[in-house]
Specification:
There is one protein chain. The protein is α+β, with helices and mostly antiparallel strands. It has one domain (about 1-155, about 175-235): Alpha-Beta Complex (Fumarylacetoacetate hydrolase, domain 2). About 15% of the residues lie in helices and about 35% in strands. It is built from 6 helices and 16 strands. The protein has helices spanning about 25, 145-150, 180-195, 205-215, 230-235, 255-265; strands at about 1-5, 15-20, 45-50, 65, 70, 80, 85-95, 100-110, 115, 135, 140-145, 155-160, 165-175, 220-225, 245-250, 275-285. The strands form 3 sheets. Strands 1, 2, 3, 4, 7, 8, 10, 11 and 14 form a 9-stranded mixed β-sheet that branches. Helix 3 (about 180-195) crosses helix 4. It is globular and about 55 Å long.
Length: about 290
């Protein structure tokens, strides 16, 4: 395991993958947003930015934290939902034109791509960055060189701790259950950074142009897609005082039952061979107007 310094990632770029785990978009009520997006069967729907330094927009606020999650102040309802994901940290190679030519994995960690469920939002990014501590990344990660080979035994679990009780929020899932993974995912992301464009009627944006505008950073942080929710997770939004726990763990060291019991006891930091993200939900500032 390796330690991550989140402040070191302020010079990176952050984007996510939409629709990379079967059934998640339907549970999140977002499948209809992609009806105009052309994608191969079983393929993810596209990529979206959540951190774009130098963009001159709300996306230039660094949103990643490790211990807290800020729920924005609002006069109306704020429906925040944990999105348990694998974060993939990659070095970026560019060609002479400044276009991405390769993504080289260096680590994976537990990630919370938390979302505000904003019905009718024009772009995915409008649900993703409402200020500091609107995302979560564990500070302990698995080193990676060959993505599929080095992570073949990893699983992802997610829990909600509320009023002294712990509930399964995401379905414990093997990372090999992603629709696209390994070299297939890396090649597809490079293609999307080179070819994806913003278009009316779709929630996608030209992420490659934002990356170029950020000065071609040497590293990207990628949320590779949220897994499926439990019934509780699908219909339960976060409130101040809740605690979100996302665990990326090696199934060779612990089985799902052991992980769930350990988290229920509040001892998730004792899990061996695990990247653990625990965030307490706190009151935050109003979200930016979009």
């Amino acid at each position: 395991m390796i330690a991550l310094e989140l402040d070191d990632l302020r010079g990176s770029f952050g984007f996510g993958v939409a629709g990379n785990f079967a059934g998640h978009l339907e549970q999140a009520g977002e499948a209809g947003d992609f009806v105009a997006v052309e994608a191969a069967a079983q393929a993810p729907k596209g990529i979206f930015p959540f951190y774009a330094p130098g963009s001159g927009t709300f996306l230039e606020t660094f949103p990643v934290a490790s211990g807290r999650l800020e729920k924005p102040e609002s006069d109306g309802p704020v429906n925040l939902q944990i999105e348990p994901e694998v974060a993939l940290l990659c070095r970026v190679e560019y060609d002479t034109a400044g276009t991405v030519s390769a993504l080289l994995p260096r680590a994976v960690a537990a990630f919370n791509d938390c979302s505000i469920r904003r019905e009718g939002a024009a772009k995915i990014s409008h649900k993703k960055n409402w200020g500091a501590a609107s995302k979560g990344l564990a500070t302990r990660a698995f080193p990676v060189e060959e993505l599929a080979a080095d992570t073949a035994t990893l699983r992802l679990a997610c829990f909600l701790r509320r009023d002294g009780e712990t509930h399964a929020y995401g379905i414990d899932s093997a990372v090999l259950g992603y629709s696209y993974y390994g070299e297939q995912l890396l090649d597809w992301m490079v293609d999307r950074l080179r070819e994806q464009r913003s278009a009316d009627g779709t929630p996608l944006e030209d992420v490659g142009a934002l990356l170029l505008g950020a000065g071609c950073p040497a590293e990207v942080v990628v949320g590779i897609g949220a897994t499926r929710y439990t019934e509780l997770g699908a219909f339960t939004y976060l409130d101040v005082g809740d605690t979100s726990v996302v665990v990326l763990y090696d199934a060779a060291a612990a089985d799902p039952e052991h992980v769930a019991a350990t988290v229920a006891d509040g001892r998730e930091d004792e899990l061996a061979a695990a990247s653990v993200l625990r965030q307490v939900v706190v009151a935050g500032a109003p979200a930016p107007r979009l």
